[in-house]
Amino acid sequence: MTLMDIQNLTGCLASVARILRPEGWFVFSVTHPCFPTPSLGWGRRVDAELEREKPDYFAEGHWRRDNPAGVRGKVGSYHRTLSTYVNALIKAGLRLEQIHEPRAPDDLADLIPGYLEVPPFLAARCSKDPAPLKA
Fold first, then answer.
1. Residue 54 is assigned to a structural domain of this protein
2. Which domain covers residue 9, as residue numbers?
3. What's the chain's average pLDDT?
């Protein structure tokens, strides 16, 4: 749960690939790139209806939540599209082996009702590609 907190994703993944042993693997998890986006406001109930803002999935960059007590309100995050993550892995010479979008546990879905519909996290396992693509 750190790649979304690192400004230089390309440099970070290049370092991972450089130090990863040929038989080694790299596992990461991030908040799901599609859900939520910086402008998405899930969790507020208005007259028993869930109030939602229209997300802008393609708006990449650093953002902070309005809640100063929460993690994203304190440190923010770098929103990136799924293709940005996958292409950065490929450029670094890492091969995506497995991807998982787990359902939210009941207690988290109770706090953030939108997580009943979409996965809150994305987890992946990568290995060092023996023949990385040249950019």
1. yes
2. 3-128
3. 82
